[in-house]
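quick one
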Amino acid sequence: MVTTITELTKLWEKALKKIQQKMNDDRSFDYFFSNSYIYEKNGSVLVVVAPHLVAKTVMEGKYASLIIDSLSEIDDDDYEIKVVTNEDLVQQRKDSRINSSIKVEEKVPSYFADAAIKSDLKFSNFVVGEFNSDAHKAALYVAKNGGTMFNPLFIYSHSGLGKTHLLHAIGNDIKENRMPGAKILYISAQEFVEEYIKFVTGEKESQSIKDFFKTVDILLLDDVQFLAGKVKSQEIFFSIYQDMINKGKRIIITSDRQPAELQGLEDRLVTRFSQGLTVKINEPDVDTCVEILKQKIVTSGLNIEKFDANVIYFLAEKYSNNLRELEGAFNALMFNCLNLLDEETITMDVAIKALSSIKGGKNIAAQLSEQKILNVVANYYNLTPEQLTGKDRSGQIVLARHISMYLIRQHLDVPLKKIGELFGGKDHTTVMSAITKVDKELKTDIQLQTAIKDLEKKIKE
Ligand code: ADP
Ligand code: MG
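structure w/ magnesium ion:
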């Protein structure tokens, strides 16, 4: 008997092929049947969602027997059909919320009571760059397409680079666009282990959690590395996994390393994880991090024009190895700017002040101050900050570089060794001699005196 949404979807795909053959009119078929899908099965009643109201009318009327005949050619069960539109479903959901006090008795106990797909993690707010384009492409593919291609999809990366975001995006996309009635389960491997320990003490309970997974159509399993070393949990997970894959149900897994490196995991699991498609998320590039911050500013309802681009760029560069930390630093900055300083415009100075008051933020504030000096000097001499910290030894650049070192030392009290690191790993004696040189020339060189005076004024602006 066909029961799960995955099976029902397959049944409907087969029926559609038959209906198309029998109609022998592709234009009408497309108009009435393409984008139709099965919502659920209630007893013997199949609830079919029609693409629009006209389609609903003809599917219930003129084509009803054609549909039922086609279904009976595929499956021995006797089906009745009920046709609805997406609008009907929306209304039905509203009504059921009103009637939700009437409890429906469930045959299969429900595990993972708190599991939920987060509606704010979507493809539409997932910024794509070169570093994550493979994972994004694969995730979109499995969200948009049925079938068993790329099953399981295995996504791995270091922490904070978008794996969890992609899992939820897949779940949301399938729910909204392809299989609204599907039961999609998002859980972390840690939750799986905890649930296993809490509920499963014998054969009976093992069967019960397996039965529960039989009702799941799509599994989004986060951070599978947590299964390492948990022998019993792995055993039961293996059985659940095999059952789902054999039934053609989609599984998407994330991990902090690739399958072959998952130590403490049974070989049979590792081999199976590699059987679909494995994709990696690499380290983000700074430009994509800038895009992510800009998107965050806009979606937070803030005005992007109030942000000095240097502040955004600085944070993006500083945290490009972890997007979670990037967001964390940005949130902390916002909290301090909006609540403590009550500033209108987020200039570099405002950001420096705000970052200094964040726990552990002093170092970042100091780096931002260095960056500010570099920006001021670079601007003054028509160079880029990268030229100042780089290796080019042409006359004008070397002078500007020495002046930057001098100003950083004077204004920020940064150790010589640190200044050396900022300037591409220079030795502290090299820094010292550059600063001494500027100091000495300042005594006689009037042009240099004017430049330093102008620069100091700009730094304080
Ligand atoms: P992981 O699961 O790999 O540790 P997350 O998915 O939790 O990482 O991502 C960390 C944070 O960064 C989340 O708030 C997420 O929404 C955000 N994020 C990650 N990648 C992107 C992206 N490409 N575009 C926008 N936000 C992202
Ligand atoms: Mg995660």
